[in-house]
Design a protein that fits this description.
This protein has 494 residues and is α/β, with parallel strands linked by helices. It is 36% helix and 16% strand.
């Protein structure tokens, strides 16, 4: 539809709504509003955001596709249970402030979640409109609408700061400044506690800053949320590694903290255990993305001199969002060819459908049902190729996906000069090694009471990837909110 056609359709629908004649049949006829995007060829050579966001007309039309179901099944798919029906109704009415206020009852990071959360397998999966058409791509675009109101508010120059209750005299430490830590710190500070965030890196934001590329999540958006925390009175200490700089016990005994929230994520990369992983030119996705994002290796024009491989041919191993991010980052750093090697099929990839689509549009070459057997180096120990095996899918495994089975004798070679391993992360063992009495499961994740996020150590709570394993921004936020509520109750009694 042209802009003029969209505006005319919106006016017709608004007139029907005024007279009470807008029916579900009318809503079903509204075409889903696609998200405007940069051209795939153009965006390969910049780090600007790929999706450019809805216009007001697009947002209101998309919002009017919502049936305003009485049961609101979409809420059941939201980890923080935002009143989705109500904020979408406010957008349809053009009341964007009200829409944002509804979202912020439960989510402090709408601009972030609207961009990176997997709505297609959460709130949008149960959308009645998508179910009606038996097509999940026709569900109401809840995430895009959430992003729209957050961006509208930011572009309007809004600088509202949540109110803070009377000081309680209680000191709380939040370890980690990722999404879970930000939400926990905000909720604790709103209750009047003295809150300090301890961050291991030199910049705050956690995985949102070091892991997610600029073209998916601009760092200025994350920084605005950090700025809001400081305006609320939250203290932030960077370059502070709990377990190394100080232990949990020292935070209690020497610094006088009354409670601690651990939200350090799962930042220790997994490797494959194959020959050649120690060669020059092999990166973990964590290292590669941290150099590119947090340390701005992509931005040589501004004087950034972070060392990173200047690659011609890159193989990225994995099929998740981190693998897509790594492959697309390699393109933007000048690679002539990028291969994404995954041992299952595209259908089994855990990456968001949108991210897979964007990677393919940008020219990433997918090698499915394949996996490296070894990485080959030259006489100087530099990567020159990977030797892969072909696979076929067998029966379902514990993940609910069909197990990949190697095909004997199917070895073949792909010439590359860089190999990025993106097959997942596990918890860093540092806190485990330095905190007696803190219980962990067999995967190295902290064991908690899921109703309170309390750990086995009194006054210590935890949430996010250090508890659940690598998950999503919104899941970490949800656990942070549960923990903050429990901590507020605990501190009130104390």
């Amino acid at each position: 539809m042209t802009d003029k056609e969209s505006q005319e359709l919106l006016q017709q629908l608004l007139e029907k709504q005024k007279t009470g004649k807008l029916t579900p049949a009318d809503r079903y006829k509204i075409p889903p509003q696609g998200m405007p995007e940069q051209d795939p060829i153009t965006r390969r050579s910049n780090v600007n955001e790929v999706a450019t966001g809805y216009t007001e007309t697009q947002a209101r039309l998309e919002a009017m596709r919502c049936l305003q179901c009485k049961t609101a099944p979409c809420i059941n798919g939201c980890p923080v249970r935002i009143r989705i029906r109500d904020f979408i109704a406010a957008i349809a009415d053009g009341n964007y402030k009200k829409a944002l206020d509804v979202i912020k009852e439960n989510s402090l990071l709408p601009a972030v979640c609207g961009r990176v959360c997997p709505q297609e397998v959460q709130c949008q999966q149960t959308c009645t409109v998508g179910l009606k058409f038996k097509d999940p791509t026709k569900a109401v675009s809840i995430g895009r609408l959430e992003r729209f109101v957050a961006d509208f508010d930011r572009n309007a120059g809004s600088d509202s700061v949540p109110s803070v209750a009377t000081e309680t005299g209680m000191k709380v430490a939040v370890i980690g400044s990722g999404p879970g830590g930000i939400v926990t710190a905000a909720d604790l500070r709103r209750a009047g506690h003295d809150v300090t965030i301890f961050e291991a890196f030199h910049k705050t934001g956690g995985v949102m800053v070091y892991g997610i590329p600029e073209f998916r999540l601009p760092k200025a958006i994350v920084q605005k949320e950090i700025d809001t925390l400081t305006k609320m009175g939250v203290k932030i200490t960077c370059n502070f590694i709990v377990g190394r700089t100080k232990t949990l016990e020292q935070l209690f005994k020497e610094d006088g903290f009354d409670a601690v929230y651990i939200g350090v994520g799962a930042g220790l990369p997994r490797f494959m255990g194959i020959e050649g992983e120690s060669l020059i030119g092999v990166y973990s996705a964590n290292e590669y993305l941290t150099r590119a994002n947090l340390m701005k290796a992509y931005d040589f024009s501004s004087g950034a001199d972070t060392p990173i491989a200047i690659s011609k041919k890159v193989a990225v191993i994995g099929g998740g969002n981190v693998a897509m991010d790594s492959a697309r980052t390699a393109l933007r750093l000048g690679a002539e060819k990028v291969y994404l090697v995954y041992r299952r099929t595209e259908k089994e990839m855990p990456a968001r459908i949108e991210e897979v689509h964007h990677a393919q549009e940008e020219g990433i070459e997918f090698h499915i049902l394949q996996s490296p057997k070894r990485i080959i180096g030259d006489q100087n120990s530099r990567v020159i190729a990977i030797e892969c095996l072909k696979y076929q899918l067998g029966k379902l495994d514990e993940s609910g996906r069909r197990r990949p089975i190697p095909i004997e004798g199917s070895e073949f070679r792909i010439d590359v000069d860089t190999c990025i391993i993106a097959i997942g992360n596990i918890a860093n063992p540092l806190i485990r090694q330095t905190t007696p009495g803190l219980k962990f499961n067999k995967w190295g994740n902290i064991v908690v009471d899921e109703e309170t996020m309390a750990t086995s150590v009194p006054s210590v709570f935890a949430g996010g990837d250090i508890v659940s394993g690598a998950a999503t921004v919104i899941m970490a936020m949800g656990q942070g909110r549960i923990a903050a509520a429990a901590m507020n109750g605990f501190l009130a009694k104390k």
